[in-house]
Amino acid sequence: MLLRMSTLFLRTLREDPADAEVPSHKLLVRGGYVRRAAPGVYSWLPLGKIVLENVARVVREEMDAMGGQELLLPALLPKEYYEATGRWEEYGDTLFRLRDRKGADYLLGPTHEEVFTLLVKGEYSSYKDFPVILYQIQEKFRDEARPRAGVLRGREFHMKDSYSFDIDDAGLQESYDKHRAAYIRIFDRLGLEYVIVKATSGAMGGSASEEFLAVAPTGEDTFVRSTGSDYAANVEAVTTPAPAALPVEGLPEAKVHHTPDTATILALVDFLNGLDLGRDFTEADTLKNVLVKTRVPGSDEWELLAVGLPGDREVDFKRLEAALEPAEVALLEEEDFAANPFLVKGYIGPRALLDNKVRYLVDPRVVTGTAWVTGADRPDHHVIDLVAGRDFTPDGVIDVAEVRDGDPSPDGRGTLYTARGIEIGHIFQLGRKYTDAFQVDALGPDGKPKRITMGSYGIGVSRVVASVVEQSHDDKGIVWPREIAPADVHVIGTGKGDQIEEALRIAGELQARGLRVLVDDRKGVSPGVKFTDAELLGVPTAVIIGRGLADGVVELRDRATGEREEVALDAIVERTVAACRA
Ligand code: ATP
Ligand code: MG
Question: What residue spans in the chain does CATH classification 3.90.960.10 cover?
Fold first, then answer.
């Protein structure tokens, strides 16, 4: 490959685009890699297309190596497929819907589970046909509520999506593990710093799902990691280690106190500390009972649920939703309190909950033998020294308190802190959701039909391009890892003599040696502009043919380290090849 900047369809910009907030958006636009066509819709210009294809090539190589087979399905899909699984409705406004001239409804595929499932159903029928892993690299369409940050969150974007089909759960696990290993190789080759987080705790028997997050402060996903190990997880999946149970013998008796105007925890703690009870209280000594209601799918009955947790923590609603999935959760409304007069706002205690058969789940820290200050179920009254396992026995444990910096890591090594990441990949054991919807069976060796089980796995190919830039840039521009750089070497000729002819000659030789070459052969462009462009574009290695040419020297530059080296003209080809292969 040899690209000449004198004719290349490329215009770099000096100014950041007005709508750009994150570095990758600014630099990809300024470097002429992409251009915005509509909100969340981008054109890939020649250099951008090369980078995008390079990412796709790495993905393809690793998918093929693990036994995946590439195909290409349409993006324009009939509504019926997605109606069969309920996703025509479920997707809501995110789905691009359209209608043909005959009035039939279509959509632009946001992801392709339905289509792959039907394809396999049509072609395969015997257990001998399985397992099979199919994938494609294709544009996907989602009418995102907030398209953002250029190609990081587009409405049209490039995704590698693959689907595994297996006879049994052990097979699915194998296909999943293959994908996981392939993803690790892909993201390692792309030079990304990433973590693999469990998408949900799976506490409710949910199927395995993990996300690959590129670590970046501009990422939209929050996750927690440990100071003492490589533990990383989504906030929803963090588990709180339960302290050991304590003996209840000899603990003081529970005692109700009149605590006027203490409907908030701070007011309560202040009040108690003014009572001279011979000890100091903090918010962590109180047991707060948070009431919500839940509804299982398919039912219209809401059921009360009380969550008991230390008063210095809030319930994290996302953790609560994840823990209760697939049931829905909602906050109580005034009429719920009115319908349940035993719920005395600000003074709710375990007694009334348990006496009235409200399901009562507590934080893992509320173990047997811990003593709490909590509501006494009448206005202006609290009970002190209410002991778990002695004075009340909850219905179970629920781990939904907010996770805080400094909390112990679940693996026992180090403490947790919050970080941000960009979701670049997602692997998911779907199970039989789609094969049930479409009744996909294979005839087993015994002649009986067996329901196929599936996995689905995505990589955001265009998002990866932006994620690499988020992690690999400086104040001058992009610093591409060689594997996906638009070129190996940027040969720059500057000066009034025959530097440009010389640059073209060297570029030709480097190309003949197998390097991918970008050559700046523009006439009448100042050296300053050429250097600025080179740094913005971010090709890993640069060869500069400038004033030194008269003395037979040229310069080799490394974009990442900034190192410069004078090299004799007749040695530059060898030296550059060596630098690019290092
Ligand atoms: P997000 O939570 O970021 O919206 P998602 O969980 O909806 O993503 P998946 O359905 O898991 O996305 O899609 C697989 C992969 O496609 C994601 O891991 C991500 O890398 C990429 N992707 C998803 N949505 C977009 C988008 N709007 N623009 C670019 N890439 C995307
Ligand atoms: Mg996802």
Answer: 255-397
Compute the radius of gyration of the chain from its Cα atoms: 31
d(CA 510, CA 169): 52
Q: How far apart, in whole angstroms, are the C-alpha atoms of residue 502 and residue 489?
A: 15
Query: Distance from the CA of 460 to the center of ligand 1, in angstroms?
Result: 6
**Alpha-helix runs per DSSP H in 362-430:** none
Q: Tell whether domain 32-238+418-470 is in CATH 3.30.930.10.
A: yes
Q: Where, residue-wise, is CATH 3.30.930.10 in the chain?
A: 32-238+418-470
**CB of residue 456 inside a 6 A radius of ligand 1:** no
Pocket test for ligand 1, best of 179, 236, 426 (most atoms within 8 A of CB): 426
Which H/E stretch holds residue 65? helix 46-65
* Contact in structure between 213 and 424 (CB atoms under 8 Å): yes
Q: Please report which ligand is nearest the Cα atom of 161.
A: 1
What is the phi/psi pair of residue 435, to 5°? -70, -25
Which residues hold their Cβ within 5 A of ligand 2, which is an ion?
A: 426
Atom from ligand 1 closest to the CA of residue 212? 18
480-580 belongs to which CATH class? Answer: alpha beta
Burial class from Cβ neighbours inside 10 Å (0-12, 13-18, 19+) for residue 81 reads: buried
Q: Is 463 in the pocket of ligand 1 (CB under 6 A)?
A: yes
Q: What is the full per-residue pLDDT of the chain (582 aa) written as tens digits? A: 999 999 999 999 999 988 888 999 999 999 999 999 999 999 999 999 999 999 999 999 999 999 999 999 999 999 999 998 888 988 888 999 999 999 999 999 999 999 999 999 999 999 999 999 999 999 999 999 888 889 999 999 999 999 999 999 999 999 999 999 999 999 999 999 999 988 764 443 445 889 999 999 999 888 999 999 988 888 888 889 889 999 999 999 999 999 998 889 999 999 999 988 888 999 999 999 999 999 998 888 999 999 999 999 999 998 999 899 889 999 999 999 999 999 999 899 999 999 999 999 999 999 999 999 999 999 999 999 999 999 999 999 999 999 999 999 999 999 999 999 999 999 999 999 899 999 999 999 999 999 999 999 999 999 999 999 999 999 999 999 999 999 999 999 998 889 999 999 999 999 999 999 999 999 999 999 999 999 999 999 999 999 999 999 999 999 999 999 999 999 999 999 999 998
The CATH number that domain 255-397 falls under is 3.90.960.10
Most informative mutation of 463, 464, 465, 467 for ligand 1 (most atoms within 8 A of CB): 463
First to last CA, the chain: 20
